[in-house]
Specification:
This protein is α/β, with parallel strands linked by helices. It folds into two domains: 168 residues, Rossmann fold; 64 residues, no CATH class. The protein has eight helices and ten strands. The radius of gyration is 18 Å and the shape is globular. The protein starts with a strand and ends with a helix.
Length: 243
């Protein structure tokens, strides 16, 4: 369970303080997916960083699994816009980096995840030898190598072409269904939010507040994009953003 109550985030001090997030509330049951969508610069990433324990709220509380978030946690993984791969390390080394830093290598490794993501054949290559889509998949492998119970994603497919985005969205859906981690996705893409979010929170411009919540019960199949339910969800999201 992820429980966010009255989350408020300010940057700066006193009269120079800028409020990024104002009294945001939401709850996500274990194993479910949530998308956060809103205008650029509205505070979506600030919410995600607070969930990851990388940013301390000015007010409000965040609990994961019943315990307060006071810093980074092993069971919470974060995928950013940039895959953040180390150019001097191979695909295998990059994918296992989290385990290496945690002291669990080589007893456990990301080999199974690499295989699931179709990266086994390129495990000895370096990032410069990979396509952008492959780099994103290595970032996914690194995030999943520690078997997190919560996966946070900040615009993970930004700048990719449409077909590559859709292929990796399909991959995210398959991995989520297989591993049943709780998933929170920050995106500016209405279609992506509708495809991956069982629930979608629409945020206002900065400071971010909850403007609307769209329930998306029919998501969960790879052919969902072709359904009337999907088109209705996209329409509802567009209306909520434009209000």
């Amino acid at each position: 369970m992820i429980d966010v109550e009255s989350l408020t985030i300010d940057y700066g001090l006193a009269d120079r303080a800028v409020q990024a997030v104002e009294r945001v509330d939401f709850r996500l049951e274990e194993g479910r997916s949530l998308a956060l969508i809103g205008p650029s610069g509205c505070g979506k990433t600030s919410i995600l960083f607070a969930l990851a324990g990388l940013l301390s709220p000015s007010n409000g509380t965040i609990k994961i699994g019943g315990g307060p978030v006071t810093g980074p946690r092993r069971e919470v993984a974060l995928i950013l816009q940039n895959a953040g791969l180390l150019p001097w390390k191979t695909v295998w080394q990059n994918a296992n980096l989290s385990l290496l830093l945690a002291g669990d290598y080589p007893e456990h490794n990301a080999g199974v995840i690499l295989d699931d993501l179709g990266l086994t054949e390129v495990k000895s290559r370096f990032p410069a030898e990979l396509s952008e889509g492959m780099k994103r998949r290595v970032g996914i492998a690194r995030a999943l190598s520690t078997a997190p119970s919560v996966l946070l994603m900040d615009e993970p497919l930004a700048s990719l072409d449409t077909l590559t985005r859709e292929r990796i969205q399909d991959l995210f859906l398959t991995l989520w269904q297989e591993h049943r981690f709780s998933l929170i996705l920050v995106t500016h893409d209405i279609v992506e939010a509708a495809f991956l979010g069982q629930e979608i929170i629409v945020l206002t411009k900065r400071p971010a507040q909850v403007k609307a919540t769209v329930i998306n019960p029919k998501m969960g199949s790879l052919d969902y994009r072709q359904s009337e339910a999907f088109q209705r969800t996209v329409h509802d999201l567009r209306e909520a953003l434009e209000r």
